[in-house]
Task: inverse folding
């Protein structure tokens, strides 16, 4: 996680001056749809634990701001509810569920299709469950087991408790359809954990290509050869990502592999960037390196935790203001001109 941020800080952009005064146009066309800014809310499991009803807050903010919100398979709100709140800006991220020969996966794809989801994202970079020491230290496990530590943590935060009373805690809402009986939240989380696991094979990606009529993206690409393979099976885009640094401590910083992926498939597919984005300047950095747009996760979670229902709107404004200011400072008029920025990126990996 630290390496992702540090590597972004090392990417230098050379500004040009003497231009007329102007306001940059930061709108971006992604997969045939126009969005207001080159930033999307990344898929994250259980925003509702950070603030009850968090997924709905993200959906409303994305609809209002006209930026994509990627609903996670492990969310606390259903595809149907989120597309109702954000009919034009909802993307959906899918984890592999090998139980019943991916039957649940294909049904989720059918639900996404029928509710108007725009982009389907298959996550590749969780082939195994890894140890996450910070989560263990904070007693964050799935299924979650509340205890005295939970009570001590939430009592000083009456706003969070009121939100919990209003929304309840609905983890793994998309899995409820596939249970034969009414399960408690604890039992539903256990059900979800038992049925999820592994990474999609390229054969399976190809099967989802056949089943999904809209834009198809794979998330978790770090090697240019994997990017080329993804294109060969028919995907429309890739997300260059190391899962926010949460899966493999020894993985390279995402930004350091981005140029190689751009060189491999930049003319054939839409390249998105994830992992380490913390500012509008970071977004401009990755666009200067060839990404079309960036996904941001943690900053939206932090905004949710700090400001509750106002948090997502605050972070959207934070990004759009900073992206515009950075582009004006560097001397580019629109997103397309970001490709012309002079860059120094000495740590880029050579393959």
Result:
């Amino acid at each position: 996680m630290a390496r992702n941020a540090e590597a972004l800080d090392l990417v230098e952009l050379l500004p040009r001056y003497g231009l007329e005064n102007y306001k940059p146009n930061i709108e971006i066309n992604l997969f045939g749809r126009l969005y207001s800014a080159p930033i999307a809310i990344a898929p994250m499991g259980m925003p509702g634990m950070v603030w009850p009803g968090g997924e709905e807050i993200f959906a409303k903010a994305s609809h209002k701001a006209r930026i994509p919100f990627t609903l996670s398979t492990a969310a606390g709100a259903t595809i149907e509810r989120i597309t109702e709140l954000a009919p034009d800006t909802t993307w959906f991220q899918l984890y592999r569920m090998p139980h019943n020969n991916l039957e649940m996966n294909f049904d989720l794809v059918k639900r996404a299709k029928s509710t108007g989801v725009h982009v389907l994202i298959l996550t590749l970079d969780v082939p195994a469950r890894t140890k996450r020491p910070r989560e263990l230290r904070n007693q964050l496990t799935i299924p979650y087991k509340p205890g005295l530590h939970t009570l001590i943590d939430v009592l000083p935060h009456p706003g969070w408790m009121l939100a919990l009373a209003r929304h309840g805690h609905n983890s793994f809402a998309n899995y409820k359809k596939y249970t034969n009986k009414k399960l408690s939240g604890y039992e539903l989380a256990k059900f979800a954990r038992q049925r999820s696991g592994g990474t999609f094979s390229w054969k399976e990606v190809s099967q989802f290509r056949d089943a999904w009529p809209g834009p198809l993206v794979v998330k978790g690409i770090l090697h240019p050869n994997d990017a080329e393979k993804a294109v060969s099976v028919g995907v429309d885009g890739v997300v260059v990502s190391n899962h926010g640094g949460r899966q493999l401590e020894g993985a390279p910083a995402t930004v350091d592999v981005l140029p190689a992926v751009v060189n491999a498939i930049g003319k054939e597919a839409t390249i998105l960037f994830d992992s380490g984005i913390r500012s509008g300047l970071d977004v401009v950095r990755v666009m200067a390196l060839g990404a079309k747009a960036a996904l941001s996760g943690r900053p939206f979670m932090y905004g949710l935790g700090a400001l509750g229902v106002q948090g997502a709107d605050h972070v959207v404004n934070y990004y759009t203001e900073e992206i515009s200011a950075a582009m004006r400072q560097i001397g580019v008029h629109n997103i397309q001109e970001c490709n012309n920025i002079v860059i120094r990126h000495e740590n880029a990996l050579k393959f």
Observations:
- The chain has a mean pLDDT of 93.
- The radius of gyration is 20 Å.
- The chain has one domain: 2-344.
- The domain at 2-344 is CATH 3.20.20.70 (TIM Barrel).
